[in-house]
Amino acid sequence: MTDISSAGSLPIATLTGDPVARVPINATIADVARAMVTCDVGAIVIGDDPRPSALVSERDIVRAVAAGRNPATTLVSEVASTKLVWCDAEASVDRVAARMMDRYIRHVLVERDGALVGIVSARDVLGVYAGFDS
Description:
- InterPro entries: CBS_dom, CBS_dom_sf, Diverse_CBS-Domain.
- This is Histidine kinase.
- Residues 80-134 form the CBS domain.
- One of its GO terms (molecular function) is kinase activity.
- Keywords: CBS domain, Kinase, Transferase.
- The chain has one domain: CBS-domain.
- The protein contains 5 helices and 6 strands, in the order αβαββαβαββα.
- It is globular, with a radius of gyration of 16 Å.
- The protein has 134 residues and is an alpha/beta fold.
- β1, α2 and β2 form a beta-alpha-beta unit.
């Protein structure tokens, strides 16, 4: 039987699987919302840089719409987060979970050798802990 402490020691890279969803820098909020539905994700990287500088989440879109911004004409680059939080692919699930809590964020970009290899969400992390008996 595996316990919760073993779950937390897993490398965060074990939670990355699907390719990172991306939209071009000139995408609108509406374009991003459609891409999120199509890719079934809650955050999308903006642009095609190997080490991106912007990410947009469902929360960013909700904030923009609540502020009265037109999703069809507002560029995602105007509302995307640029204070990205990264972790190394070998960081433990516990370490990344603590970082998410400390910074009150839901998504962390995962890198290996300086390149983006995935995005981990709070839901991904919670799934690790929920899948193990304590």
